[in-house]
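User: What would this chain look like folded?
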Amino acid sequence: MDYDSPAANAQAILRRNYFCDGHADTLALVALKGYDLAAPEPAGHLSLPRLQQIDQNLQFLAIFVDPSVHGYRGFLEALTVASAAHRLELPLVRSRADLERSRRSSRPQFLLSLEGAGPLQGDLGRLEILFHLGLRAVGLTHNHDNQAAAGCGSPMAPPPAGFRGLRPFGRRLIARMHELGMVVDVAHLARKAFYQVLEVASRPVINSHTCCARFVDIERNLDDAQLRALASTGGLAAVTYVPRFLKSEGPVTSEDVLRHLEHMVELMGVDHVALGSDFDGVSELPTDLGHPGQVVNLVERMLRSGWREPDIARVLGGNWLRVLRQVLPQE
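Assistant: Here's the prediction, encoded as structure tokens.
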């Protein structure tokens, strides 16, 4: 390949390698706000035509329920979002066999992830229901505390108001997820809870959408010690495109995403780094990463920075494949 022409090569690299994005909030917009996933020019960031345009293999879709929606109503809303995937007949990756099929399919495939265990309300039976609807990953919290753990936005005051860790239900939840073949996601966790999850987990753990605290020092981002600890589980950290996580001030571009990617690779190794955009979960994005088709701009920057195709391929999707093969049920 002619690496002296990154612009010409970036699209080809994206098309011939497995590509997975670890986080988007589009499905909640479809279910609750009437968003048209089939629109060629969608109101938001992500659509089926845009995924097909770049031959994307797999897209994680979050089941997000606002933490202000409590009790059984929250679980019903989670069911509504999950059911939208079935109403639209989206092909779901539920198993390792499905994952292998996603490598050969001409259609984008999808994996359902619960963003915040609040809708479960401490009931593993609700997890089982969502599992049968195709749920295969769970982030224990959004920003706020729930029955599973403390979120990164929870108060710093002394306990009980400032509880920062993993709760008993969170421990039971992780154990049951391991039994079922579900991915544990530590995005949005308070740092104390993060480390307690890693103590409990016996499978690779992910952070589906995060950035480096080295550059923007907030608890939502992972510090260097957390990045190394996450890699030690065999899991991965997926860099997100949220501007305020990437840079404290000023315009944000794919160059800022690359800076976080390269720092993660330096600390974790290239086998533990991936992408998790947060499309349709934020109002602003980097100026040249506004939708899936523009991921080619990031690949071009990687080439210009001296990345070789095998390492680009790991970040685009190879690392997601490795983790999901280890965690998902066989059939």
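The domain at 6-327 is CATH 3.20.20.140 (TIM Barrel). If you want, I can go into more detail on any region.
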